[in-house]
Amino acid sequence: MVIPAEQPFFDQAATRDGAELPCRILIVDDDVALRRTLPHVLAHSTRQFDECGTVAEALEKLAGTEYDLILLDYRLPDGNGLAVLDWLAERHRGEAVIMISGEDAIDAAIGALRGGADDFVRKPYHVVQMQRTVQNVLHRTALERANRAMSQRLHASERLHRYLVESSPDLIFTLDADGCFSYLNPRVEALLGFERAQLLRRPFILLVMPEDQDRIQALLQVCRSGRSDGFSIELRLRRNRHMVEDGENTYVTVALNGLPMAGEDGAGIGLYGVARDISERKRAEEIITFQAYHDQLTRLPNRVLFRDRLELAVAQAQRRAGMLAVMFIDVDRFKLVNDTYGHAAGDALLRNLAERLGTALRRGDTLARLGGDEFTILLPDISRPEDAETTARKILDTLARPFALPSGEFRATVSIGISIYPRDGKSAEELTKHADVAMYKVKRSGKNGFRFFDAELNAHHRQRVTLENDLHNALERNEFELHFQPQVSMAGRRVVGMEALLRWNHPLHGQIGPAVFIPVAEEMGLITDISRWVLDRSCHQLMRWRDSGHTDLRMSLNLSPHDFDRAGMVDEVLAAVTRYRIPPAQLELEITESMMMQDTEGAAAKVQALRAAGLGVAIDDFGTGYSSLSYLQKFPVSCLKIDRSFVGDLYGPALNPIISAITGIARGFGLQLIAEGVEQAEQVEVLRSLGCDVMQGYYFAHPAAAAEAEQWLQTPPCAML
């Protein structure tokens, strides 16, 4: 067969009688929509597509058909794509494979490439990326097949041999005994930007980057001595600086295979080398490595890389008897940004925040993002703990300026916990954990500050963790109990209501009050289940008392502000009222004044819905916050409860102007009034004189279980007053 000198061999392999050969592509993916979409995305007049959704179906099709390309999903219902790669390898099949995966772990990409995949595409991908990858693989496969075909014809014609070498996509060259070029194919011009004439009879070492010269010199020396059968290495070859544009690499990474050429006496007379450009593969490996050790949003080191650097810093500090600091940083109110402005604004804030934090650090410090709104900082080689305090203050000062978000300005603050090596821990895990503990203390103490770790703080944190663990199981173990405190009408001289108060009977620590565990339950997200339990038990107890003849008794119970964040909260309350046959007016729900201050439109709407259904709504601890009459119009409550702190100031004939004001507000708005914390007869008389009729407190009865509370309903009121 005669090949015209002007006609590339690739065209001979890829065409027949001037027409392109068909290309068969198999799509293996359990996503039906994806299998139907890809043929349209990759459509070409020469391409034919088959599809299937499992490993078994793929192997069945491959057993009867050979394909040019397989688009293979990593995760399949009956296995993973590696099984298909193993099947192809065992049978020495020549199909090209592009592995497609949604796996985040780098192991998936490494396993696929080691298993023989030609390329790896991570989901989700851009259509253009997939088109380019398929085109590149098909093109590369065609070139490889062409090379194989050419190799089979080498012995047929010297001209064909010359054509193959000259047209190879690889750099092919020979060196003489002195390591100088004796032959180069034209690929060197496109690859490195040098003309062949410039390099002939020049040392090969001149093309090698300085960092790799010692290695290649040693290998060439061994080849010249006749003690080597050849070598395969990766190295960097210098590009012609006159051909390098701004931003481009000054070198090309190649995989070099070198074979020594020996004379008749066996002595080395030169070297035959083939260098393949693997720059794209190296860049892909670098990208995969970067993604494995860096946060994709902020480009900062991630948890894995931070831990590695911290462990190294600890080892160095141990050898030098030095000191280092770890900071754990949490962004205050970050959820507010996501909920108010959207996640795009939240991401923008995190990126800007990362830049600001970096400006407060030294060159050798490490700033990492652990995930969400949590950051960590490593301060190696500090001379005293005060150095960490200085950095913390710099961070707080740096964040003083507001951040410009697409929806407006936002002032971000952070809570910072600090641990010091070796004072606060000898390992990376201890230091990070203790900095985290200190940060949470800042969170609970008002945020926007910093704190060093101390042993007492750790003990408190351990108690907190133990409390959280026990609280998880408290409902299942039936450890909660309701106590009731009577609400007494002085005019009617009888009990008109009961307030349900939650108690936790801990198996080891005895009875725990709600002030201790309710904030923990709210923070852990357990308050919803607890509130449902309180609602159900309270309504059930009220039903029993009503069945006993106390038909006009009112039940009062407290709700968490978190309950008003739930969409179905009103329906749950109404369902309980219906389930236990309770007139709506005899159930009163207490809300806090702080909830009104932080109100969303949704919370006000829920209060309105409860009042419209006939239920009572009381404001607990009224007057302790920033009370505003406008909130009483927005929240149509039915009752105000005077806080015990005001009642406690009533001694003798003294009058409290705040109580006078509250009673006036209640009369003006037509609201019921209840005084809490009544403990003395004098307080009773003063409250009565101010117009408050219903009271509760230790003067009448301490909170007690339902059995004792029922006796109060049966005892004549005069015995209680």
From TrEMBL:
Reaction it catalyzes: 3',3'-c-di-GMP + H2O = 5'-phosphoguanylyl(3'->5')guanosine + H(+)
UniProt KW Phosphoprotein keyword: yes
Matching SMART domains: EAL (SM00052), GGDEF (SM00267), PAS (SM00091), REC (SM00448)
GO biological process, one term: cellular response to nitric oxide
Residue span, Response regulatory domain: 24-138
Single annotated GO MF: cyclic-guanylate-specific phosphodiesterase activity
Residues the record lists as 4-aspartylphosphate modifications: 73
Gene3D superfamilies: 3.30.70.270, 3.40.50.2300, EAL domain, PAS domain
PAS domain mapped to chain residues: 157-227
Entry keyword Transmembrane helix: no
PROSITE patterns: EAL, GGDEF, PAC, PAS, RESPONSE_REGULATORY
Domain called PAC: residue spans: 231-290
Protein name: EAL domain-containing protein
Organism: Pseudothauera rhizosphaerae
